[in-house]
């Protein structure tokens, strides 16, 4: 997140909720990338080697 002011103003439970939401968002993003790599059968060997 680039908005540091919002993070600085949060405390306790609200901050914890923000962290959890961000963690899930990044996990969802990473899983999406993995799926995209798996489903892209046209990809070259070079691209597959880069994905490790």
Task: Walk me through the topology.
Layout: H1 4-9, H2 12-39, H3 45-50
Give an overview of the whole structure.
The chain is mainly α. It has one domain (1-50). It is 77% helix and 0% strand. The chain is built from 3 helices and no strands. It has helices at 4-9, 12-39, 45-50. The mean pLDDT is 78.
Shape: elongated
Radius of gyration, CA atoms, in whole angstroms: 17 Å
**Termini Cα gap:** 25 Å
Percent of residues in beta strands: under 5%
Brief summary:
With 52 residues, the protein is mostly helical. The protein contains three helices and no strands.
Keywords, separated by commas or semicolons:
77% helix, single chain, 52 residues, mainly alpha, 3 helices, elongated
